[in-house]
Amino acid sequence: MTATRKALTGTAFATLLLIAFMMGANHVAARFAFNNGVDVVTAVSARSSVTALVVGFVLWQQKVSLTTTLRQKKFLLTIGGLIAVQSVCLYSSVARLPVALALLAFNTYPLTTAFWARVLYGHKAERAVILAMPLMLIGLSLALDVFGAASGLGAAAHWSQIGVGIAFALAASATFGLAMVLMEHEAGGLDGRLRTFSTMGLVALFSITAAMSQGGFHLPTAQPGWWGLALLSLLYGTAFTIMFMVLPKLGVVGNSAIMNVEPVFALVLAWALLGQSIAPMQLLGALVVVSTVMWLGLRKR
C-alpha cells in the first residue's frame, strides 16, 4: 500500500521536529540516569510503563476496538519481546557510547528491515535501499572512526573501547528491523494505537519481570539520576502520544522520516549537557547517515 504524502505545513514540520527532539533528549536523559545508579532494565521498565499507560488512556478515550485474531495475538507477543530486547540493547549502547554514535549505529535499521523482509517474505530490496547501503556504511564508518584515527588510539585500542557499545546498537537495529517487518506483515491490519499499547505493555511486563528476577530495580543514587529517569519516561511517553494523536490529523505520515534527525538533536544536547563531542570527520559521517536515512524515508514511491 502506498502512503499518500501531503505537503507539509509549518505546524506539521515543527511537530515532526519536536518529536525528533524529544526522542533524542530521551536518550540524553537516560545517560544522566545511567551515570547515577540506574540500570538499563529499570530505565526500560519506567519508560515502557509510562508509555503504555498514556497510550492505554488514548485507547480508552477514543474507544478504539481491541479485537484481534489468534494469529495477531501470537505475533503481537513476539513483537513485544523483540522490542523489549531492542530497548535494552539500545539503552545498553547509550550507556557505553556517546549518545549520538549509539543512535547513528541504531539508525541502520532500514537496512536490517530490508534484510528481514527478504529472508522471511522473499521481498527484494528496492533499488533505493540498495543504493543507500554503501552510503550508510561509509557514513557510519566515518562516524564511528573505525580505524581510530580521530581518537588517536589506533583501531585495536579504539574498538576495545567502543566495540561492546556498537554491538549493542547493531543488535538493537537488527531486532527493531525484524519487529517492523513482522508488524507490517502480521499485525498491519490493527490500529496503530492498539499495536503500540500492546508492544509497550509487553515490554513493560518483560522488563519488570527481568528486574524482579535480578533483585529489583536499581534506583538513582543522586538527584541528576532522578531527573534523568523522570525525563526519559516523560519525553518518550509524550512523543508517542503526539505521534498517535496529532500526526494523523496533520496528515504527515508519509513525511515521518524527518524525525530521523534525532541523532543530530542528541549530538547537540549531549555536547551541551554531557560534554560529549565528536571529531569533524565523525560529524561528517553522522550527516551522511542521517541524510541517507531521511532520503530513504522521503523518496517518492
UniProtKB/TrEMBL annotation:
Pfam families to which the protein is assigned, alphabetical: EamA
Top-rank lineage group of the source organism: Bacteria
Annotated ranges, domain EamA: 15-143, 165-296
Claim: Mitochondrion is one of the keywords in the record: no
Keyword Transmembrane applies: yes
Name of this chain's protein: DMT family transporter
Record-annotated membrane-spanning stretches: 40-60, 75-94, 100-121, 128-150, 162-182, 194-213, 225-245, 257-274, 280-298
Keyword terms: Membrane, Transmembrane, Transmembrane helix
Species name: Limnohabitans lacus
Alphabetical list of SUPFAM superfamilies matching this protein: Multidrug resistance efflux transporter EmrE (SSF103481)
